Amino acid sequence: RFMVKGRTRNSQLAAYFFSTTRSHPRSFVGSPGEGRAVIRMAAMDPTLPLVKNLLLLDSEGKRIAVKYYTPEWSTVASQASFEKALWNKTSRTNARAEAEIIMFDNVVVVYKYIGDLMFYVTGNQDENELILYNVLQAFYESVTILLRQQVEKKTVLENLDLVLLAIDEIVDGGIILETEPAVIASRVTMRGADGEQAPVPITEQTFSKALASAKEHLARSLLK
Questions:
Q1: Each residue's pLDDT tens digit, 89-106
Q2: pLDDT of 131-181, one tens digit each?
Q3: How far is it, in rounded angstroms, from Cα 155 to Cα 79?
Q4: Which residue intervals define the domain AP complex mu/sigma subunit in the entry (predicted)?
Q5: Using CA atoms, how far apart are residues 165 and 33, in angstroms rounded to an integer?
Q6: What is the dihedral of CA 25, 28, 33, 34, to 10 degrees?
Q7: Domains along the sequence of the chain with CATH
């Protein structure tokens, strides 16, 4: 459930979400080359749902992990200004029990607070709010799984590699790839050094092994 302009939306609207995205599956499984092909296809299909950014801020509005996918915020200064203004707008609202949605700076913002962290997802003014909510839910629930329910600033900073990899599993270039939290968490922790899926499921991995695997994958990705 989440609040939309003072009204409560719940899971009964899930059917609407699926009907609007039937021609654009929420989950994409394939090689990196296929992923780039999906992104190129999106440029030719303006109806494909797009995410402008994913933000994870602390309780003071300071950035912890962010990803921007559109050119409105092309500089670090413009990003910092947007993040600060957004935090000022939302910091006094109650978005803990339920996520909330607002219009801010010509974008739709869906957000939720967990502990001392603030999770945000933004999209175009005419974007389907339920799609953005699904992305937000995938964001904070996959992080919750990866951090073994310890969703707080200290734990996130200690395991930032896992959080960044989770973001990349959810959205790539603004295109929504996956919104199932368990699937996202498994893909992050099961990445081997060569990018192949490891045979050990997330439930059987130790946290240290999962973190080591994620760090190795992230390091190799940055070197490519």
A1: 999 888 888 999 999 999
A2: 999 999 999 999 999 999 999 999 999 999 999 999 999 999 999 999 999
A3: 24
A4: 51-192
A5: 18
A6: -40
A7: 49-223 (3.30.450.60)
